[in-house]
Amino acid sequence: MPEFQRSFRRSRFTLTPVAFVAIALLPFALHAQGAPEMDPPLVLKSSPLLQEQIPQAMRDQMPTFFSGDHTLGRPDLDTVIEGNAVMRKGDMVVKADRVEYYQPDDLLKARGNVHINSAGNIYEGPTLQLKVDAFEGFFDQPRYQILKNGAYGEASRADFIDDKRVVLHNATYSTCRRQPGPDWLPDWILKATSISIDTEEEVGVADGAVLRFKDVPIMAFPAMDFPLSEKRKSGFLPPTIGLDSTNGAELTVPYYWNIAPNRDATLFPTVMSKRGVDFGGEFRYLEPDYRGTLRANYMPDDKLRDSSRWGYAFTHTGTIDSGLSGVGKLGLNLNLNRVSDDNYWTDFTQTSSTLTQRLLSNDATLSWARGNFSTSVRTLKWQTIQSISSPIVPPYDRLPQLTARYARYDLPGGLDASVDGDYTEFSADRSLTLQPNAKRAFVLGQISRPWVAPGWFLTPKVQLHATRYTFDEALVNGATTADRTVPTFSLDSGLIFERDASFWGKALRQTLEPRAFYVRTPYRNQSNLPIYDTGANDFNFATVFTENAFSGNDRISDSNLLTLGLTTRFLEPDTGAELARFGIAQRLRFADQNVTLPGGTPVSDRLSDVLVGAQLNWDPRWSFDSTVQYNPKTGRSERSTVGGRWNPGNYRVISANYRYQRGTSEQIDIGWQWPLSAPWGDAEPSAGRWYSVGRMNYSMQDRKMVDAVLGFEYDAGCWLGRVVLSRTQTSTSTASQKIAFQLEFVGFTRLGVGTNPLSVLKENIPRYQYLREQISTPSRFSQYD
Predict the structure, then answer these.
(1) Given Cys at both, which of 8, 96, 273, 659 links 249, Cβ 3.0 to 4.6 Å?
(2) Domain named Organic solvent tolerance-like N-terminal: which ranges (predicted)?
(3) What Rg, from alpha-carbon coordinates, does the chain have?
(4) Which stretches in the chain have pLDDT values below 50?
C-alpha cells in the first residue's frame, strides 16, 4: 500500500567554523571585487503541443489533418480517403485503409486495418465509427492496449463514451506482452462479460469476470474493480498462502479501502486451520495538524487456547488547538499497545513487530511550549508479557510524570542557563520489584559560558542536581523520605584543524579534531536510594563525553576524570559530504567512582577501555561502520560492532553485521537481495529472472540460528511469484517456522500493508526493493504515432 508521504534520505552536510565564516563572508568579498550583476536565468516556455493532457476546449479548436493515397471530398461536407488513410487531431490519430469523414455530423467512419491512438491508448480492428470531438462511437472486434499499465486485450465490441471512458464487451484483459504465434496464451488473463475502462479515474470495472492463471481458473467475480496505475485504489490485494508450525495452513486475502485522499484502511483476515479466523485490520489518517495509525487483530475463538485473542497498536502524533490566545496549541502524542494474554507474542509472531514484544507501552503525553518555557504531562503504563521459563521484572509505571524546562541562550556575558524539573509517581507490583513505590521530584539547574571561534571551542559548565523521594513504605533504615543534592563542574574543549588533501586521485578536505572533556562531581552516598528509571550508560562515542555515567535520575555518578578524543574526517570540498570518519577516545580517571547500581562494585581503573571507531562512505555503492572497545590491560576487545553494506545497483544489496560482547553474546547478521540469473551490468527487472532474498541472524556463542528469513522471487514480466520461509525465536528452546506463498499479477493486483511475505521482506532486509514498482507515470509520447 503506497506511503502517505515519500521519505527522503538526507545527506550529511558538515561545516567547520572556518568554512562557515568563509561562506558568510563570500557576499562581502564579491561586492568588494565589484562582481557584475547576474542576468536572470533563461526559462524554457512550455508548449501546449507537449502537454500530456489537452483540455477539451483547446482540443475543439485544434485543426484536423487528413492524408492518404487518394482523397475525395466536398468542402464543409465530407472527405473520403482511400489507401494509407490518416486523420490527426490533437492527441488522436486514426489510420485505416479507408476513412470517411462527415463534417456536419463530425462523424468519422474507418474500415480495413483500423488503428486508433488516443493519448497513448491504442485500439486496432476492422471497423470504427466515431464522433471525433466528443470521442463517442464504437469499434468492432478491437484489440486494445492501455497506456497506464501496458494492459492488452480483445473484445467483440468497444463502446467509446468519451476520450476517457470505454466499455469493452466479451473482453479479455492481461498485462502479459503479446508473443508471436497463433497458439500464444498469456500466463494470466481476465475474461469478462464487460470491462469498463476509466483512464481519468485510473480504474477498471469487470462484470462476470473469471481470472485464469496458466489457463486454470483461480478466481471468479460477479463484479470487481482493479487499478490501472499505482494510484491508491480500493480493491483486493495479492492473497497469501502459508504453512505455520503452530497455526497450520494459513490463507490471507487483504482488502484495501481508499476512504479519502488522507485516510485509508486495510483489512487482512487470516484463516488458520489449527486456530480459526484472525480478523486483522489497519486504519491510517493524515491531517495538517495530526496523523496516526491503528492496527488491531481479533480472533473470536482460538481452538488451541480455547479463548478469544486480541491485540491492538495505536499511534497518534499532532497538535490540539486549545482555543485560548494565551495558550495556543498543545502537542499530543499517543502510543498505546495491548494484547489479550501472555502467550500472544509467541502464538502470533507475524502479527506485528509492536505486538510481539514482551514489554508493551501505553504512553500518552500532552506538551506545551512558549518561548523559552516548555512543559509536559505524561502517563506511562506497561503491560509486561511474562513467561514461566524466562520471567522479567516489570518496569515502573509513571502515573503521572510532570516535566518543565526553562532555557535562556541570550544572557549577558554570553551565558547560557537552563532549569529542568521532573515530578514522577512510580508504581509497580512490589512482589516483583522488591522495593517501595515512590514519588520523586528532581531539579537540574545549569549555567555555561561557551566560547566558540574558528578553529576552537571552550565551554565551562556548572550543574546542580537536587532530588527528593517520598516512599509509600519505609526503607530498610526506616526512612520514608530521602534527599540528595549533587553539584557538577565540566569543561569541554576542542580544536579543529583543516587541510586540503588528495587520496587515490580525489581532492578532499581533511580535518583533525582533538577534544578534551573534564568532569568533576563530588561523592554523595546514594546506596539507599531505590532504582526506578536508571541504568548504566552504554560506553560509546555518544556517551563518553557526558557528565553522568548513568541514564535516568536515580544515580548521579561521582567523577574526577578527563576524556581525551581525536577525530579526523574526510569531506568533499564542494558539497561538504562526509566520506570517511575515524575516531579514538579514552577516559583518564583520577579517583575511584564509588556510586554504583545495586550489586555493582566501584570503578577503580585509572584508564578506561579505548574506543576506536571508523565510518566509510567513500563510494555510494558501499558503506562501512565499526566500533571497537579495546582493553589495553588484557590486550583484547571487550565489545565490537562491525557492519557493512554493498549496493552496486537496483535489486542488488548485501549487508553484514558482526556484534560481539565478551562473555555475553556473539552474533552474525547477514541480509541480501540479489538476482540469480542476470548480467552484471543489467540493473533493471527482466522477465524470467529469479531473485534470492533473505536475512539470517546466527548466534556463534550458542551455535544456532536465532532468526532467519529466506526467500525466492520470480519475475515473469507480467506476474511475480514469491516464497518466503521465516523462523522466529520465541524462547530459549522453541521457535516458530512459517512458509508463505504469494502470487501477484502486475498491473492488476497491487502491493499493500498486511500482505505477507512482502511485509516480512521489507521489514527485515535493509534496502529491499519491490520488483516491478512503477516509478514514473507513462507518457503518451512513448506511444506516439
Answers:
(1) 273
(2) 76-202
(3) 34
(4) 1-38, 751-755
